[in-house]
Design brief:
184 residues; alpha+beta; Mannose-Binding Protein A, Chain A; four-stranded antiparallel beta sheet; 9 strands; 27% strand
Length: 184
C-alpha cells in the first residue's frame, strides 16, 4: 500500500514539475500594435521556431515569429521579455539584405549583426544579432492583416479563409431563401 502511495506521489510531483517547466504565460497585449506577444521556451532552430509559431493561434489571431517594426514595439519587447535575453525574432537574411517572416517592410531595425548568421535574435534585451544555431526560446506575435492595414503595414502575409461551417450555413441559407420564394 505504501509503495502505491509513494509511486502515485512521485508521479504527481513529476507531472506537475514537468508541466510547470514547459508552461508559458498567457500572451501579453501591446496597444501600440494592437497585437499579442508570447514567449515560448523551447530550444529550436530558427526554421523550426518559424514553423511552429505559424501554427499557433490566440483568440482567433494567427501567430508568427515576432516582427519588431518600430522603436516602440522594440522597446516593448525588450522591457517585457528582458529576463529571457536571447530569443528568436522573425528576421532573416534574404540575399544581401534582411527581411521579415511576414513580408512587412524591413524599414526600421535594431540590428547589430556581424554577418555570420542568417537569422535574427534579441541579444541581452538590447539589440538584435544574427545567429546560425538554435536559441532556447522565441517570441510569437499574434495579429491579423486587418490590424496591420489600420497600422499602415502591408497585409500580404495572411489570407482570410472562411470556416467550412460558415460556408455550409451560407449555402443552407441561400437554398432556404429560394425554397421560401417558390412556396409563395
Amino acid at each position: 500500500m505504501k509503495s502505491k502511495i509513494y509511486l502515485t506521489a512521485v508521479f504527481v510531483v513529476g507531472f506537475v514539475f514537468l508541466n510547470l517547466q514547459n508552461s508559458n504565460a498567457a500572451p501579453i497585449y501591446f496597444a501600440g500594435t494592437d497585437h499579442y506577444y508570447e514567449l515560448v521556451w523551447i530550444n529550436l532552430s530558427f526554421a523550426s521556431a518559424r514553423t511552429i509559431a505559424a501554427q499557433r493561434e490566440y483568440n482567433g489571431l494567427p501567430g508568427y515569429l515576432v516582427t519588431s517594426t518600430s522603436p516602440s514595439e522594440d522597446q516593448f519587447l525588450r522591457n517585457t521579455f528582458a529576463a529571457s535575453s536571447h530569443y528568436w525574432i522573425g528576421g532573416y537574411r534574404s540575399g544581401d539584405s534582411w527581411a521579415w517572416v511576414t513580408d512587412e517592410p524591413y524599414a526600421w531595425n535594431n540590428n547589430n549583426s556581424d554577418g555570420n548568421g542568417n537569422y535574427l535574435y534579441m541579444y541581452n534585451a538590447s539589440y538584435w544579432d544574427d545567429e546560425p544555431s538554435s536559441r532556447s526560446c522565441y517570441v510569437v506575435e499574434y495579429g491579423t492583416y486587418i490590424d496591420d492595414l489600420i497600422n499602415g503595414n502591408s497585409p500580404t502575409y495572411f489570407q482570410v479563409i472562411p470556416e467550412p461551417a460558415t460556408i455550409i450555413l451560407l449555402i443552407i441559407g441561400v437554398l432556404r431563401l429560394f425554397g421560401l420564394k417558390k412556396n409563395k
